[in-house]
Amino acid sequence: MKVEQISVFLENKSGRLAEVATVLAAAGINIRALSLADTTDFGILRLIVNDTEKAKQVLKDHGFTVGKTEVIGVEVADKPGGLAEILNVMKANSINVEYMYAFVQKSAGNAVIIFRFDELEKAIEALQKAGIRIMKGEEIYSV
Fold first, then answer.
1. Burial level of 2, CB count in 10 A (0-12/13-18/19+)?
2. Among 4, 68, 70, 58, which Cα is nearest to 29's?
3. pLDDT surpassing 80 at residue 143
4. What is the helix (H) or strand (E) element at residue 8, kind and residue range?
5. Per-residue pLDDT reduced to its tens digit, 40-55
6. Can you say how many angstroms the Cα of residue 4 is from the centroid of all Cα atoms in its chain?
7. pLDDT tens-digit readout, 8-37
8. CA angle 33, 41, 58 (to 5 degrees)
9. Which residues of 118-139 are buried (b: 16+ CB within 10 A; e: fewer)?
10. pTM given for the model
11. How far is it, in rounded angstroms, from Cα 74 to Cα 51?
């Protein structure tokens, strides 16, 4: 049910993002989803990749500060109201969304939303009770 995500802390300067992409490409790591949040001096690059452990190691070997976090991947119909349905389940259960990002699967007609909740286990239970499909990590790593 949970998906491993790596977070890379980057200086906010030209070329740093290219360095990450180049290191991952050279190691044969495929990026499945990503989000980049920035501040004035630093950014946090969040990645779902096909091989989390290898990605984490090669990035550390190249001097990057890398962390690993568990998130949830939820499949939702790619239509108006899909996100609202999930967020209303969280609201009804007093669960806070810390951050999220999404991507659309061309062939499936669905979107995948990656969530980080303040109460991960409670969120999984609430989503399951609501009949919302939570994707397995293997499904997302191989998209």
1. middle
2. 58
3. no
4. strand 2-11
5. 888 999 999 999 999 9
6. 8
7. 999 988 899 999 999 999 999 999 999 998
8. 45
9. eebeebbebbeeeeeebbebee
10. 0.86
11. 20
Single-letter amino acid, residue 94? S
Size of the chain, expressed as the number of residues it contains: 143
Q: Is the dihedral of CA 143, 112, 78, 34 positive or negative?
A: negative
Q: Cα(113)–Cα(33) distance, rounded to whole angstroms? A: 10
Distances (CA, A) of 53 to 21, 59, 89: 16, 10, 32
In this structure, what are the phi and psi dihedrals at residue 97, rounded to the nearest 5 degrees?
-85, 120
> 40 is written with which tokens?
């004035």
Distance between CA atoms of 77 and 109, rounded to whole angstroms?
A: 7
Give bridge partners of residue 35 from the DSSP assignment.
Answer: 46
CA atoms within 13 A on the CB side of 113: 20
